[in-house]
Amino acid sequence: MPLPFHRMAATSLALASLIVLSPTWAQGTPSASNPDIGTVSQDGKKDFSAAERLLLMSDQLKGLKPGSTLAYRYQHQGEGDEAFEDRARLTLSKRKNGSCCTASGEFLSGARRLQLPEVEQPVGNPVLLYFLERDIRQMNKITKGSASYFRKRIRMALYEAATLRDVQASYKGKPVAAQEIILTPFVNDPNEARFPQYVMRSYRFVLSEAVPGQVVSLQTLTPGARPDAAPLTDDQLTLEGASVPMLQAFTPVAIRTVQ
Predict the structure, then answer these.
(1) How far apart are CA 215 and CA 180, in angstroms?
(2) What is the CATH number of the domain that holds 28?
(3) How far, in Å, CA of 72 to CA of 95, rounded?
(4) 258 within a domain of the structure (yes/no)
(5) Which of the residues 80, 100, 218, 234 has an alpha carbon 20 to 30 A from that of 143?
């Protein structure tokens, strides 16, 4: 069963803590001596990858005020559902003590809508958590595979097998500098025989400090069985008013540590 949202948002920690320190996300990370995340360096400090710092540990909501709303468009095509377009929205409001901010989300609509908890005083953008949760629920539904296993592979790939590069996006008709993270968490997966259709599944995260909430686009893409075939799945969430270039060729990177 997918991890209930109330367990992931049980504290007032930043989104980075919700994902990085959640037992489900941290389970099975490369270092047994450090069950929370990453490895421990010689001076005893935790080691984080550049991709982790950018995606999970940056202050993505800085500068936003209570009453701010971030709107995103969601596009889906592929297995498990007919192609559709929908919306997601994140609203910031004052906390009970008057400080900023509590984040509440609306993610998709109708039968597809996810029930979301409020996130107290987030730093990272919770829309990332919502997007990944839907993705993992879909894989769990189709393959009957373990949601916690999918989470573990994504976390491990983010730590040791992420491709990070500069790209140019657009926001309100103007070019903005952005950074792109690409993961292929199921390449050389020892359990790939259980879900072979997802071996080449990639995750693309595009972020920019020039846009509100810093999340420009989030995408999961599963190619078809043949190079000329349509993607098996293509899900993309994009900030309203923003656009990103098409995904360029990249070299899939496998997780080095096999658990």
Answers:
(1) 10
(2) 2.40.360
(3) 24
(4) no
(5) 218
Could you tell me if residue 115 is inside a domain? yes
Segment (H or E) for 145 = none
**pLDDT tens digit sequence for 39-77:** 444 444 568 999 999 999 999 999 899 999 999 999 999
Domain range for 67: 5-243
SS3 sequence, 34-99? CCCCCEECCCCCEECCHHHHHHHCCCCCCCCCCCCEEEEEEEEEECCCCCEEEEEEEEEEECCCCC
Joined together, the tokens standing for residue 80 give 């498990």
User: Measured at the alpha carbon of residue 110, what is the angle toward residues 218 and 81, in degrees to the nearest 5?
Assistant: 60
Specify the number of domains making up the chain: 1
What is the Cα–Cα distance from 213 to 223, expressed in whole angstroms? Answer: 29
What is the rounded distance in angstroms from the CA atom of residue 199 to the CA atom of residue 203? 12
Question: Does residue 165 lie within any of the structural domains?
Answer: yes
Closest CA to 185 of 206, 211, 160, 157: 157
Residue with tokens 């080691």: 47
Could you tell me the strand order of the sheet in which 215-222 lies? 119-120, 100-107, 84-94, 69-78, 233-239, 215-222, 202-207, 174-183, 163-171, 242-243
Whole-number Cα distances in Å, 85 to 74, 109, 170, 174, 241: 6, 10, 20, 24, 16
> What is this structure's pTM?
0.83
Is-contact 20 36, C-beta < 8 A?
yes
Q: How far apart are CA 213 and CA 60, in angstroms?
A: 5
The answer to whether residue 257 is domain-embedded is no
Q: Which pLDDT tens digit goes with each residue over 173-213?
A: 999 999 999 999 999 999 999 999 899 999 999 999 999 99
